[in-house]
Amino acid sequence: MTETASSVAPPSRLRALTGNNEIVLIVILAVLCVLISIGAPQFYSVENVVAILRQCALVLIVASGMTMLLIAAEVDLSVGASLAFSGVVAMDVTNKTNSVLLGGLAGIAFGASVGLFNGLVVTRLRVNSLIATIATMMILQGGIYLYTREAVQNRHSIRLFTDLSTGYVGPVPVPVIIAALVFIACYVVLRHTMVGRYIYAVGANEKAARLSGLRSERLKLGVFVFTGMLVGLAGLLLASLMNTGQPTAGRGFELQVIAAVILGGTSLMGGRGTLIGTLLAVLVLKVIDNGIIILRWNQDLQMIVPGLVIIGATWLDLVRRKSDAR
Amino acid sequence: MPQSPDLALAPRPAPSILATLARRNEVALLICLLALIIFFSLASSSFLTPRNLTNVLGQASLAMVAGVGVAIVVMSGEIDVSIGSLAGAVGIPLVTIMNMTESLPLGIAGALLLALVVGVVNGYLVAYLGINSLIATLGTMFIIRGGIYLYTGQRSIPDTAYLEEFFQLGNGRFFDFLPYPALISLIILAIFIYVMRMRPFGRQIYAVGGNPEVARLAGFDVRRVKFICLVISALLAGVAGILLSSRLGSAVHVAGLGFEFQVVAAVVLGGVSLAGGVGSLVGVALGVLILSFLSNGLGMLNLATEWQLVVTGGIIIAAVAFDEFKRRNQKQ
Amino acid sequence: MLDEARTGHAAAIDTSIPALEMVGIGKRFPGVLALENVDLRLEPGKVHALMGENGAGKSTLIKILAGVYEKDVGTIRIAGREVEIRTPRDALSQGIKVVFQEIALIPEFTVAENIFLEDYPTSGAGNIRWRKIRDDAAALFDRIGFKVNPDARTGDLPVSQQQMVEIARALASEARIVVMDEPTSSLTPTEVEMLFSVIRRLTSLGIAILYVSHKLDEIFEIADTVTVLRDGRHISTQPKTAHTSDTLIRDMIGRQIGDLFPRSRGAGTGDVVVGVSGLSTAKLADIAFEARAGEVLGVFGLMGAGRTELAKALVGYDPIRTGTITIGGSPLCPHDTRTAVSLGIGLLTEDRKTEGLMLELPVMHNMSLASLGRFANMSFLDEKRERSAVQEFVDRFRVKTPSLEQHIKNLSGGNQQKVLLARWLMRGLKVIVVDEPTRGIDVGAKSEIFALIDRLAAEGLAVIMMTSEMPELLGLSDRIMVMAEGRITATMGRDEATQEKILNAAIA
Known about the structure:
The complex is a heterotrimer.
Chain A: H1 3-6, H2 13-17, H3 20-39, H4 46-71, H5 79-97, H6 100-123, H7 129-147, E1 152-153, H8 159-166, E2 168-169, E3 172-173, H9 174-192, H10 194-204, H11 206-211, H12 216-242, E4 244-245, H13 253-263, H14 275-294, H15 301-325
Antiparallel strand pairs in A: 1-4, 2-3
Chain B: H1 17-23, H2 25-43, H3 50-75, H4 83-89, H5 91-101, H6 104-128, H7 133-152, E1 157-158, H8 164-171, E2 173-174, E3 178-179, H9 180-198, H10 200-210, H11 212-217, H12 222-248, E4 250-251, H13 259-269, H14 281-300, H15 305-331
Antiparallel strand pairs in B: 1-4, 2-3
Helix pairs in contact in B: 2-14, 3-9, 3-10, 3-12, 3-13, 3-14, 4-7, 4-12, 5-6, 6-7, 6-12, 8-12, 9-10, 10-12, 13-14, 14-15
Chain C: H1 2-11, E1 20-29, E2 32-42, E3 47-51, H2 58-66, E4 73-78, E5 81-83, H3 88-93, E6 96-99, H4 111-115, H5 130-144, H6 159-172, E7 177-181, H7 189-204, E8 208-212, H8 216-222, E9 225-230, E10 233-239, H9 245-253, E11 272-280, E12 287-292, E13 296-300, H10 307-314, E14 322-327, E15 330-331, H11 337-343, E16 345-348, H12 352-355, H13 363-368, E17 376-377, E18 380-381, H14 383-396, H15 413-427, E19 431-435, H16 443-458, E20 462-467, H17 470-476, E21 479-484, E22 487-493, H18 499-507
Parallel strand pairs in C: 3-8, 3-9, 6-7, 7-8, 13-20, 13-21, 16-19, 19-20
Antiparallel strand pairs in C: 1-2, 1-4, 4-5, 9-10, 11-12, 11-14, 14-15, 17-18, 21-22
């Protein structure tokens, strides 16, 4: 009887790391790179590649958390508003304390507390997370203007603060390194730890997970807080990049992030998705952005093309799954 | 027929009218609305005037019109978040055609044609290709907004025809009393309340959203129902967009940004379940009115618009949480 | 009013032509041949019983008839005319009405509206005639003696009444062929009588009935002809009078029933590991019992008796109003599955899909979910050890899966159930609660599951088995507890238990 199970060869390394959706994305990415470089040879220049990676950093940091959240079958639409607010807080606290550490911690703590609030509303009050986080978004958008009418300028001129976004380690920009570290940490947690398994399990079937002895609400709360922390971190980097705490920053950021996560193959229904897919999707979207710029196309295409890509990729995924089922 | 001694078979006493009323979500919403009105009229003397009250109806009309469409889509078990972009986009054909032809009906026809096309695309993607409606309409939302920017070069298109009818449409008052947008929104609301209650198609929407499998077994064409709902939602967003651009007096490229969130919030506040199959348009209308009175009243109290956002967000959470709490208690 | 309409309708039915003929029907699902060359022929005005065990192909056949599935091969003729049925709408328009076992009603609608769901009466202007819907529904209920308020919200009715609403719906429709899938599974005896009078009324109008059941007494009371399916194949079609219980059972099972229930152990006489006293919840009243290590405690009850509710309360899933539960001597915190699991009690749920499986996840992740702690060091998983542990159970339970990475949704019901059982055994339990352990599982896998349950008890677990299947109750249990309306109405030992005694207690 054992032959049924053990005679099957273990899946290849590549297949184990990537699902089919990732392969679709890799192909799309490759095609994009080839097409763009034909029109604009400078696409492959070191400067341009570094620029693309830098563009990816902020989205990737938040998208890593959002991937976990969607896998756990929840969503957070307040990340854009929270991004701007944590940036403002980080800049303001740094101004007042002259300490980047305190300012950074304040920004991250602010993001985390927004996540905590969302998590509590969703898990304790049982409000659907789509609605709850739309409401949080409104509260934050109002709240940020109550906090400050105008942008909080950089009054401390601490080098370290600006280095967070503009500095380099060797040839690699600091935000790219931070994003890579965040990504790797999330990847390890999701793939190699109990917590990761539990996140998938709760998202795939919360009732079954609870009956198996998991504390699903606590777990979801944790993921909300973690995503909030990452938003705070991204807010800090954004404030550093713009050298101000800008209340209007982050408009539409939530949609960018969610679009990337969904494009990466993570299911809105929970239980399905990978961080590799998210990474590839962020790259695809940013390469498109970059291509539109260096090909000197109209920059308004930066909204249209991703819209088409999201719909197209979802449809391809659907077609593929249907043919798999046969 | 043997008389049954079985308790389970005993006819249930008809629930008292009061109990039935209290269970209805609309009553709770109505009480909320009245409480708001009483509070604001005590707090501000200029609140409870016919002029102000009809004003609020006018302000509420956009969300009311679009809200009816979104509510129907949500009742059918899907969602439409492209309405904000679409409401902004229809201003372009409207104003452009009017500027060229000096005809309001032609402009409106152009605007509704655009809405129809978007609705058909959304409906096809969701109902026939089977793409998750949040993803599909998020995609069209991006595409439409990008299209607006691309076409207008991120500038507004001014109305150079200066048609009186066009101005009146958004700003005039019926018999110098009810703003036309309010009148239009109430007519649309009435039509769809009638459809949802009295036409088999309305019942099919509930059935499809409540349990697609049962609906299919009952012989309903689930895909067709969803398709039509998305088309209706787009058309109503188009109507809202026409009213909006009349109020603004031009096609503004950022018009309707964030409108989808407002509308979805009002719909859910009105008791429509995101899971589909549950909700009433009366509830949706009350949800829209509550949010509109709230923002009007807070404005009267000279509270900054920022506070309005904060309070609105808080109220949405509280309302949905309360509803959820009530439902869980009923189950017990 | 309706009857007039129906008589006019019935006059059009020609009784000399078969109402329905299905010839050479075949249907294949991925990995399973569900139906092979099946024939079926219904006569107008007659009740034709379709019998067979779970997995025999009964539901596939009626789902083809209902337009839920499309047949791969074969022909369907209605009143002599060949038809294609691709969608439920096709079936309805051919005059086929199927009453499914799962409730197919919209819970938010009133009872009256659900009766007319398929065909709303409308005025000339196309408006729904609500008054007519209500009055006709009330008249219909009156006529069949079904006492339910037509204005009641359907979701508020008990399951058995919802089932009756479904059956009443068949009367209101214009159907020439009515299919009933296990219609009595949740009915009280009075309601069963009512059902039979509905069936007689339908047949007197010339309507053909296909009656799907595995309850022999019902078949002998109501059917004219009996067709038996086994393993997707047509076994026999004979007039009822040609059959005895024995011949029917032989056709259905095709082997000795004793083979199904291996028994490798003596009566359980271990320590008490589960103690329940004064337990009440929203659906349960004053439950008290004990279960011992090494025994199978069977819990029987009709649908709605509270079996599943008891199972959920025992593992801390449902909130408890009063009462205490102790597992291995330690009290269980109410409403906390986590401590329940850590005390050593687990539930194999009735509804695998919604409460047991993570359909999108691989077999390995499904199986090891409850015992990940064993393979983790500071939360980091040692996948090698996990994999070999999972492989061990896959081998031991003979789970048929191409690999441990296979999504569990691609496994058959029986193999899914084995994985879920393994989820608990890997964790190591003192008590396992199994709720309808063989629902939706084919006959072959059934006996394997029975053997596994038997072995669990032999290895010293206390097994609490909720079931509505009489054979598995009598075949596996050491003691039997009967529930009705949320209470325990009888407890008896294996030797004193008889079908009659159990049923009497279940109806009490």
